[in-house]
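P.,

For your records, the input lines for the assembly:
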Amino acid sequence: MMISHACGGEALVVPGGMARAAVVPLLAVALAGTVLGSLCIGVYPVPLATVARILAGLCLPEPFCPVANWTDAQLAVVEVIRLPRVLLAVLAGAGLGLAGATLQGTMRNPLVGPDLIGISSGAACAGILAILLDWPEWGLLAAAFAGGLLALAVSWLLAGLSRAGGVLPLILAGMAVAAFFTAVHGFIQFTADPENKLPAIVYWLIGSFAGASMHKVAILAPPVLAAGGGLLLLRWRINLLSLGELDAAALGVRIAGLRWSVVALVSLIVAAQVAVSGIIGWAGLIVPHFARMLTGPDHRRLLPAAALSGGLFLLAMDDIARTLLAQEVPIGILTAGIGTPIFMLLFWRTQGRGWTDA
Amino acid sequence: MPDPAIDFAGLGHAFRPGRWVFRRCSATIGRGRIVALLGANGSGKTTLLRLLLGVLRPTEGRLAVRGRTAFVPQSFQLGFDYSVLDVVLMGRAGQIGLLAQPASRDAVASVQALDRFGLAGLARCPFHELSGGQRQLVMFARAMVADADILILDEPASALDLSNQAVILEQIRLLSRQHGLTVLFSTHHPQHALEIADEAVLMLDRDRCVHGPAAEVLSEANLLALYGIPLRHLPFEHGGEMLATLAPVWRG
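Structure tokens returned:
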């Protein structure tokens, strides 16, 4: 005797293994194209061929360098102004995409983003304290990074007090820590000098890549590349975090250790991102949904796609931020203002395929 | 018994000092045996399963589980709509290194395990679109790719219609007979125990646990002590063979 129900017919079959396999290479090509385009556009346009030659000159060893037939102004615009900004946007976006996709998988909850577990709030709180105290740039970056990790440690301790296993204590602890640090930085803003300090704090909190430099790239790159690399190596294991406690134990998976390792890697990325570019809301929530709509829920494909989509998304948003109006629009406003309607459209078109509450 | 698969004696567990869920439970289960675990709600069946799976440590007594275990939960909820193949692949977790990805041989083994239950055609279907019976069979396939020696099932047929109950019971029997798996399943259906189990463990109350051949342990007296209502053994003839079922007497 066989169980007779079919799987609901063709419409329910997960579409296109081949199409899914092509998603990551296509996103990589799209990101590379957008990077080149971003280096060309702006108040001072630079032709694509010139940008390509300048990049070749920067990257290739001496004997292979092209002839330097560009102006000093073009070189300065590409090398000093746009390249750090593009690299920073790509790294921050890739980090947020990876962080969000990983957290949603780890917590088994599609509503989770990097903001939820308190890391962004902790980093922001320490960062504005540094602005208030007139610390130099490196002090602000170090404070924000330390604040994010402090928030994680407090969440960790709070969650550990709960006898209940699973993800709920961590989510609740993260929400409580986020709310506490939000209250603290609200108080700091309330007491800040409205002439000198408050605008700097508000602008930093909204999030921007306007102050990009190779120094900031050097701060952001190691945690994003190292922690991101670690998450990519663990990408199949993140699927296993969907299992229940008993189930995982029977399969020999130490689920609590894996969950905390993954959350620690995510925290490194998010704290570093907030340190160099402030809070960029929504990217860590909507980018994983976009990637999941393309690849399905298997983290083996989802995580690379989320990293590439995140880089693509923030880079495109930053291009709009610096070219839309005469005055630059903070990217945090654009990610929410443009990103959420795009997300709603995608969600409506795909009917939220990729996750289930079944 | 030489080298039993599961062996426990004087086993007991308390989540708080003095608050025993159960105690003084003993059983020695040989390899390849099918064992039913019966008990009223709250009698400690799930706690015993958690002890066997190593999630909890016994508060008292001795416990040895010899072999790789696989668990089939009562219900399997996924936050995301993983495909059937993704779910079966998860069974390979014990064989794949921490930082490694499943290789093609893992995927092949998973499809072969699905084929064993007639589900290879559904490998790319979203798991949550399957019926309850299909989901249970996918869980069996996952246990197969885990190369488990011991299969532990939590009420495997509790939410299924009669037809699907028959399929699941038959598959449990085949897994044990053809692959030599030791199977321990909890159930609220004494008929299921009578139908396929070689042995039964009855958790009669907090301090009393009975283990023995299913036909002996599932006596009317024990079942009355277990559920508080009478159950009658009803022998009947079917296709020239004498069979028996258990019928609860709802109105005493």
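Two observations worth noting. Chain B has two domains: 1-67+149-252, 78-146. The first strand of chain B starts at residue 6 and ends at 16.

Regards
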